[in-house]
Amino acid sequence: MEIKTSIIWRSDKNIGIGYNEEMETLKNDEDFRCFIDGDACFTTNFWGKQLEDIINKYKECGCFVGITNRIGCEWQRTNGVDWNNNDIEYHRSIGLELQKVNYDKITDVSVVPQGEVLGGVLMLLQKKVWKKI
Of 73, 78, 5, which is closest to residue 37 (Cα–Cα)? Predict the structure, then answer.
């Protein structure tokens, strides 16, 4: 299994086409593409290892999204974070604490209607799941 990370930008603003083009480049159906928004960043070191560990623990799942500080989708928002604080050290400390407490925990939202769509600040998608969609 391989994980490739991409930030998509297109002048026509159709990132869906860009996502599809990137997914097509994955060699195997078991491989994953990690999409992150252009204004997002990982706040911890070894985030790739964490993604690998989560995928390996939840082999039946082919789509993951991240929890973040600034997102309209409430169920994906980290509680208690100051949206207006732009200090990277502040956000790194929160990321480290969340990583320590929730390293490989996920919430299965496939069986619980959330009343809102998912946000794609960080989306980890397996090629075989993309093909089905």
Answer: 5
Q: In this structure, which long-range contacts are made by residues 111-115, counting pairs with CB atoms below 8 Å and at least 24 apart in sequence?
A: 114/75
Paired strand residues for 32: 3, 126
Q: Pick left, alpha or beta for residue 13 (phi over 0 → left; psi -120 to 50 → alpha; otherwise beta).
A: left
Q: Classify residue 125 as left (phi > 0), alpha (psi -120 to 50) or beta.
A: beta
What is the three-class DSSP state of 47?
A: helix
CA separation for the pair 55, 19 (Å, rounded): 20
The DSSP bridge partners found for residue 64 are 124
Total Cβ atoms within 10 A of residue 21:
12
What are the Cα distances from residue 20, in Å, to 10, 26, 36, 105, 122? 12, 10, 14, 28, 16
Q: What is the pLDDT of residues 51-105, one digit of tens each?
A: 999 999 999 999 999 888 878 777 788 888 888 898 999 999 999 999 999 999 9
Residue with tokens 């964490």: 50
